[in-house]
Amino acid sequence: MDFRYLWIKCFGFKTYPFSASPAGTKVHPFDFKLHSTGLPADVGKFRIFNRLKMSPLRSIYFILMATKINILLPFGPLAMLLHHFTQSNGWVFFLSLLGITALAERLGYTTEQLAMYTGPTVGGLLNATFGNATEMIISIYALKIGMRRVVQQSLLGSILSNLLLVLGFSFFAGGIVHKRIQHFSKAAALVNSGLLLMAVMGIMFPAVLHFTHTEIQFGKSELALSRFSSCVMLVAYGSYLFFQLKTPHDMYIPVNDEGRDNREDDLSEEDAPELTYWEAVLWLAILTLWISVLSGYLVDAIKGASDSWNLPVSFIGVILLPIVGNAAEHASAIMFATKDKLDIALGVAIGSCTQISMFVIPFCVVVGWIMGRPMDLNIQLFETATLFITVLVVAFMLQDGKANYFKGLMLVLCYLILAASFFVHVDHPSNAE
Fold first, then answer.
1. Beta-carbon neighbour count of residue 400 at 10 Å?
2. Left (φ > 0), alpha (ψ -120 to 50) or beta: where does 295 sit?
3. Taking the model in full, what pTM does it have?
4. Which of 263, 247, 268, 232 is CA-nearest to residue 361?
5. Where is the Sodium/calcium exchanger membrane region domain (predicted)?
6. Helix 381-398 crosses helix 186-211 at what angle (to 10 degrees)?
7. pLDDT tens for residues 123-178?
8. Other CB atoms within 10 Å distance of the CB of residue 33
9. Which of 43, 38, 102 is nearest to 294 (CA)?
10. Is the CB of residue 234 less than 8 Å from the CB of residue 363?
């Protein structure tokens, strides 16, 4: 038994200490591809065992060290330290934003890896679900301590940023990269637009009832209407999920300029997944949990950051917080759009809005009902108007099933107008909590 045999038997792969790799072979520190050695069969068993044992290191490399944006990851723990040992809420808020940005980008990458195994429909739903898990956890926490307006404004901001900013940048990036009109499923876009309009109806009526002073019982009628509408919206969202998963996929596959299904392009251009199915699932759970923990510090620092930076709390809650909170959807939607997978990009951006408006917001109303917290759908007149106009603009953009960079630019510019509006908007003292 020579030295090389002992080395392979111990470490399970064919590399030799203090020697170069075989000619023409590129050895990567996390590349555990087995090479033929002509040695006894039991050596192959040892190598397979070691490859399985070292597989988590491979996934750790791809998640934590493969991109330059991971240099922002240490800012998350640093924000926690500043929170516990200083009173610099402005810095805690800023560093938390940076930390969540890196985590959100990795969440988008992991979801893309999982989408390679599940397909575009389930992949889009998974991305929307994991992207909004943070908002749901923060909302329940804020609702528990009585911060109703923070819940309403942050969820509203998530819808607005996804509809205008995320979708706009996706259209813009896809149009610039491919220099042509991109196509997406008109049927899926119409279904999502209908759900968003239904959500606007459910959110608008309690506000209209309140501001027209036509309630039978002041303060109680709008709360009762909000709870009833929330239950109806939850049923509608459950039906939508069943429809999405059970409807034949041919209804949602657009045809490209040459008359071929985009599935053919996806199959020819699909990259090999870098994570296994269960590695992707595990990292999705880990990253979501870590984002949720860091988001708690972010929310706690909002009021202090508002005082330090002299910015309205509504601007931070509706504009700044959702931009970072939706960084996962933002990064992954743009990534899919640049790869000419616009249906997945829409599933991420519009699917996230649909889930927030039809599930997360009604769910918070029901949870508040159970907890004894009067959470309603009356998000005030100014916010309701911005939501209504935004949904109409996006529904108009999606009706033809085509996307280009000019549509994306218009959506982004609309978001700038929206951001400027909230910059000069201050909550009425009777509404602030």
1. 13
2. alpha
3. 0.75
4. 232
5. 91-245, 280-422
6. 160
7. 656 765 676 777 787 788 788 878 888 889 989 999 999 999 999 999 999 999 98
8. 10
9. 102
10. yes
